[in-house]
Amino acid sequence: MNRLADDEAIRREQLRQQLLMDALRRRDVRGVAGWLRPLARANAARGLLAHAANADEHAARALAARYPTVQMLLGEDTFAQVAARHWREAPPSCADLACWGERLPAALADDERLAGLPYLAEVARLDDAVAQAAAAADADAPRPDTLLRLADTDAQQLVLRAAPGLALLEGRQPAGSIWRAHHEPAVRDRPDAFAAARAALAEGRGETVIVWRRGWAVRVAVVTPAVAAFVRSALLAARPLAEALERAGDTFDFAAWLAPAVADGLVLRLDLRLPVSELPE
Predict the structure, then answer these.
(1) What are the tens digits of pLDDT across the range 141-186?
(2) Which of 16, 227, 247, 277 could bridge 233 with an S-S bond, Cβ 3.0-4.6 Å?
(3) Which of 269, 277, 274 is nearest to 156 (CA)?
(4) pTM of the entire predicted model
(5) How far is CA 138 from the centre of its chain?
(6) Which residue pairs from 190-197 have beta carbons closer than 8 angstroms and sit at least 24 positions apart in sequence?
(7) Residue 181's closest CA among 214, 222, 217?
(8) pLDDT tens-digit profile of 123-138?
């Protein structure tokens, strides 16, 4: 009997919390009026609005931490409105707001009110990739000495290992140039930091971007289709070097790409590929 009573109490509490969340999103106290004491009902609407305003403020701060470039593009006031609307339409499913907001890029892409900023959703996806790279687990220390295997080992037996947080984003907008103009000092401090982004927008040219973490710093680079094909095969899919080179095509210059990739912390080491007989079942 006690077990049934406990289960019923849990269900009632879950329902109460769901009704409260719905009331906060709708700014309407009627859905929870039956759960309130008579003396509290008179102040319920005012309290609800205060809670809602507080939730909006927390939502804006949480999304700004994850999507700083989007906030810069929209401005703080407009971004706060977008964040509040997103909180109501796609509320957090856990108490930690740091894990909330993964659906914002899709919401921005579908928002007709933002149709004049067609690059916004792709910039949001890039912001999100940067945030995920920053939170990625640490990798082993770089081992550039392993690159000596290139001299005497069949490329079919070699696999490149990538930095933590590696992501590849292919888009129709110059999200990489826009992001770099806001965050990368070498670009941001130029007299016309947005020249590359403006030219790409005028030409209708999209960009392919890779994101990774070097030490504590997250790096963002705009790459060619050949480099993207190689990164996808060699680093993301961990295919044998020979196969990745074939997929990248004749325009990819591996020798010219490798040294900067190691220096920038994109490539950590070169591993020997395990024979099929030694792979775990």
Answers:
(1) 899 999 999 999 999 999 999 999 999 999 999 999 999 999 999 9
(2) 247
(3) 274
(4) 0.79
(5) 17
(6) none
(7) 222
(8) 999 999 999 999 999 8
